[in-house]
Amino acid sequence: MIVPWLTFIAVGTTTCAGFVKLAGRLLRYTVPWKSSSLFAVIVLALFIFDHVLAFDQPVTIRIVRAMVLLLVLVILGSWFFRARGMNRSGNLLGSGGGIRLMALTFAVMAIVAFTIVLPAQVFLSKQLSPSP
Q1: What's the pTM?
Q2: What does the pLDDT look like over 96-111, one tens digit per residue?
């Protein structure tokens, strides 16, 4: 029972930290691995906490809660990385740079998720549909 949870935590933390580093690289920001990993742990903790709270909620409430969680994570990330990241010229990111970093991070996450999920859905729908 504990091995799947540990695997989820390890993969989730590494993936989130990697997306933050990728977004920083795309924006030509310098974001340390230590900071991105710490932020990934915070994101994972908030994600699990939100899912525990929304366990028996209707779908519409879960979607609204997910949007609120995304907004909270963007604001928290902009605050978190304003003093932990550097821009191209070596200055601290500030709130604006942190918001750009978080917005690009979650945009890249969404693009990668849709790139993986949509072809899988199409493939599975063709494979699992009955033959005429």
Answers
A1: 0.84
A2: 999 999 999 999 999 9
